[in-house]
Design goal:
Number of strands: 9
Largest sheet: 7 strands, mixed
Number of domains: 2
Structural class: alpha+beta
Shape: rod-shaped
Strand order of the largest sheet: 1-4-5-9-8-7-6
Number of helices: 11
Bound molecules: adenosine-5'-[phenylalaninyl-phosphate]
CATH superfamily of the largest domain: Bira Bifunctional Protein, Domain 2
Length: 345
């Protein structure tokens, strides 16, 4: 029996030595040390031994089993290490391969321009106000001196939702809301950027959905010259000192007197083109002194307070500033068009 155990140890250790893979090593473990293995078999025969021989044989069997286990464990470590090394060698990363470029986006030109205009007015002490795009007929028209059936409503063809609600046609309802909300009925100095909607046919200078920025200043002794000075600063800062501006008398039911401001066309240099419709000028905003009726409807004392208001179209301003010949470029999201504005940021 002693001999058989020694033989088994010898065989098992040779097997372990020769094993080239983890699976093979595991097979050796199962076949020598498993329940049905030869060592267990030898131990089963211990019953036939004498009382003196039994502990000697038991100790030897344990020794053999420990020796085989230790050899297997050691070999397993070596094989695992070899496996990791082989894997690492196979999976080396080629650090010389060029990486994939990360493309960086840029702001939409209208966003950048609106932020620039906001900064300019904030610098002059204005704050930003907002209002809903789905607006009540009252704020969009009535509170602005445009009662139902007023012919001037036709100047802004509207998308009605119900008889009393519509998509706002301009940002002027924010004026009416801000004045109404002001409990002290005191001074106001705001600009209101936002989207507006009109049933205009889309062409080079018209879009059915576009942006506007409204401005409103209310205080004692506000005069037309304050409006003119403000628009002048705005035009010079946005377009440069060399661009010409002109104010034309106009009509808005919510301002009296009313004006429209044009900027000389950059695209044709004033000679006339499709963008300026052959005139050499492009209209960018409407403005005027707040009509006393509008002040009174919002609860202001029109004898004490006066004010001016303006409403500009950022798309038209962007067209002139950047020399864009069609307003639709801002909304068709051609990445080649939008990318050109990264340099303006
Ligand atoms: C108004 O909307 C007035 N609420 C502006 C105003 C405010 C006047 C406060 C007085 C006091 P108007 O309809 O002219 O006015 O539009 C103002 C600007 O919006 C225009 O000068 C133009 O730049 C722009 N605009 C008008 N219609 C379109 C359109 N369909 N597409 C793109 N821009 C437009």
């Amino acid at each position: 029996m002693q001999e058989r155990l020694k033989e088994l140890q010898q065989e098992a250790l040779e097997g372990v030595n020769k094993a080239t893979g983890l699976k093979q090593l595991n097979d050796i473990r199962v076949s020598y040390l498993g329940k049905k293995g030869p060592i267990t078999e030898v131990l089963k025969g211990m019953g036939k031994l004498s009382a003196e021989e039994r502990p000697v044989m038991g100790a030897l069997a344990n020794e053999v089993r420990d020796a085989i286990s230790a050899a297997i464990e050691e070999k397993q470590k070596l094989l695992e290490q070899a496996e990791i090394e082989e894997k690492l060698a196979k999976e080396t990363i080629d650090v010389t391969l060029p990486g994939r470029p990360i493309t960086q986006g840029n702001h939409h030109p209208l966003t950048s321009l609106i932020e620039e205009i906001e900064d300019l007015f904030i610098g002059m002490g204005y704050t930003i106000a907002e209002g809903p795009e789905v607006e009540q007929d009252y704020y969009n028209f009535e509170a602005l001196n445009l009662p139902k059936g007023h012919p001037a409503r036709d100047m802004q063809d509207s998308f009605y939702i119900t008889e009393e609600t519509l998509l706002r046609t301009h940002t002027s309802p924010v004026q009416a809301r801000t004045m109404e909300r002001n409990e002290e009925k005191g001074p106001i100095k705001i600009i209101c950027p936002g989207k507006v909607y009109r049933r205009d046919n889309d062409d080079a200078t018209h879009s059915h959905q576009f942006m506007q920025i409204e401005g409103l200043v209310i205080d004692e002794n506000i005069r037309m010259s304050d409006l003119k000075g403000t628009l002048d600063v705005f035009a010079k800062k946005i377009f440069g000192e060399d661009r010409e501006i002109r104010l034309r008398p106009s009509f808005f039911p919510f301002t009296e007197p009313s004006v429209e401001m044009d900027i000389s066309c950059k695209i044709c240099g004033g000679a006339g083109c499709s963008v300026c419709k052959g005139t050499g000028w492009i209209e960018i905003l409407g403005a005027g002194m707040v009509h006393p009726n509008v002040l009174e409807m919002a609860g202001y004392d029109s004898k004490k307070y006066t004010g001016f208001a303006f409403g500009m179209g950022p798309e038209r301003i962007a067209m002139l500033k950047y020399g864009v010949d069609d307003i639709r470029h801002f909304y068709t999201n051609d990445i080649r068009f939008l990318k050109q504005f990264a340099k303006h940021e």
